[in-house]
């Protein structure tokens, strides 16, 4: 689990970082489309804010932004394996993004379940001008600022890929977090030869030597006084 090859690892980390940036942008775009085309009509300042709005807009957009930031940090770490501050940044950002992306995925699944179970009635909460519960497929005439016949299908069509992307973000963030643990030798990834090697190469760079030819002696056992 804590394996990280010093030569191939940085390239893999860079690919994961670029993927996180791409996925984060797509998820951010989907969240903006959902808000701009649908949710802004059903969530007004003086009206009831639906569960779907909170889950699909706020959490999804924030998760996309943090995924982009985590991807950028991962790319920077792949180019600066010797900087421990970058390792810490990767650990913190990937951990927070894994939590937020997981919460986003769970929230979207909950929103989808509530919407399907209620046949889209929660999306029409601000259009209920009668005592009858109105659904997107209702035959009642409604005074709504949007097309009620398409809001149900459009919302679900955008939420399903957002849920999948949130799951991908969580998986990539967990992988980056494990890489950060490996580079720092923390938690289940206890101090390894990789960390010793990186520290020696960082010392070689500070001393002006070539890190590729810098000797890597075996770790000698410390004497107990």
UniProtKB/TrEMBL annotation:
<dbReference type="Pfam" id="PF12304">
    <property type="entry name" value="BCLP"/>
</dbReference>
<feature type="transmembrane region" description="Helical">
    <location>
        <begin position="20"/>
        <end position="38"/>
    </location>
</feature>
<keyword id="KW-0472">Membrane</keyword>
<comment type="similarity">
    <text>Belongs to the TMEM54 family.</text>
</comment>
<protein>
    <recommendedName>
        <fullName>Keratinocyte-associated protein 3</fullName>
    </recommendedName>
</protein>
<keyword id="KW-1133">Transmembrane helix</keyword>
<dbReference type="GO" id="GO:0016020">
    <property type="term" value="C:membrane"/>
</dbReference>
<feature type="transmembrane region" description="Helical">
    <location>
        <begin position="158"/>
        <end position="183"/>
    </location>
</feature>
<feature type="transmembrane region" description="Helical">
    <location>
        <begin position="58"/>
        <end position="78"/>
    </location>
</feature>
<dbReference type="InterPro" id="IPR020977">
    <property type="entry name" value="Beta-casein-like"/>
</dbReference>
<keyword id="KW-0812">Transmembrane</keyword>
<feature type="transmembrane region" description="Helical">
    <location>
        <begin position="90"/>
        <end position="116"/>
    </location>
</feature>
